[in-house]
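Quick one before lunch.
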Amino acid sequence: MSTQHSTPNTQHAKRNVLVTGGAGYIGSHACQALKAAGYTPVVFDNLTTGHRKAVQFGPLVEGDIRDGAALKAAIEQYQPIAVMHFAALIAVGESVEKPADYYHVNTLGAWQILNAIRETSVGGHLIPFVFSSTAAVYGIPASSPISEDFPHQPINPYGQSKLMVEHMLLDYAHAYGLRSIALRYFNAAGASLDNSIGLENRNPTHLIPVALEALLGTRPELQIFGSDYPTPDGTAVRDYIHVADLATAHVAALEHLLKADNSTPAHMALNLGTGQGLSVDEITASIERVTGKVVPASKHPRRAGDPPALVANSTKAQTVLNWKPEHSDVETIVRTAYAWRQTLS
Ligand code: UFG
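Model of the UFG complex:
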């Protein structure tokens, strides 16, 4: 696997943050937020699903997280003060068909990064690690809202592959003093407020991008999976959080780790959501209200593995990080997603 480095940035090493997957959807928004907070995001991405044009806030190192030597070279060159790790395979359905790929990229890839951090550490100090985790670690929870101490029972290899990394982080905290925060996202949605970056996926499976494609006529319709759930309108309820809010939570997590003292836990997991659930029908209605256009839709059976409701209790994140969602009202989510989608067609 080859590694190419663009413009070196060693002179600002004290503010460099290595961002794996920084050319992807959530990673690129985190880079934007890092830049706004005065850091330089150094993107490490193999560009298989990420996009070169999303790397707008710092240098790009083209490399694969399964390549330990490339990771070590990037850390040695840029001397980051921390790592944010986004690079991953993220399709739940695909993870059931191709578990080997998911454990290879998501679990072994994370191990390679942690190993590179250990092998480049100076004087036994490991740079802190912010991990992109998921609500999929909860599987099908017995109730909602969900707090961090709910049972961790993923129902697919995607969720398992991420939970295994969380277990590694806990063990590395105890054994090697690694400081880390795992951020468990609920439903990431929306695009940057300045319309400069957004979801690039041309074959989306997530609700809002699919509904926008139906509305714009690039797919025949939105298939609504399940209208017999035990929810107020029968469609499934999710906690949609704006990607810009996820991004600022990452910066807050980074800064928490950078100023952490011995009294704070070396590893913790935090939910990132709004605490407000919206049903598929409510999202569709919001899209129609914001755009003034109709979403062609039809009702279908439930999608396998979909829980009726997934809503975060994110009190812990709000307290620990002194963070709260600012842009996660459904209008802002839909308006920014729609504006971005129009730049792609
Ligand atoms: N939905 C439809 N039609 C579609 C797409 C989605 O009705 O074409 C419904 C789903 O059935 C679900 C809701 O819209 O009820 C949201 O579905 P998404 O695919 O947008 O998101 P999920 O809640 O399935 O997935 C999210 C994250 C995953 C994570 C999972 C945890 O995107 O990464 O939550 O359960 F694994």
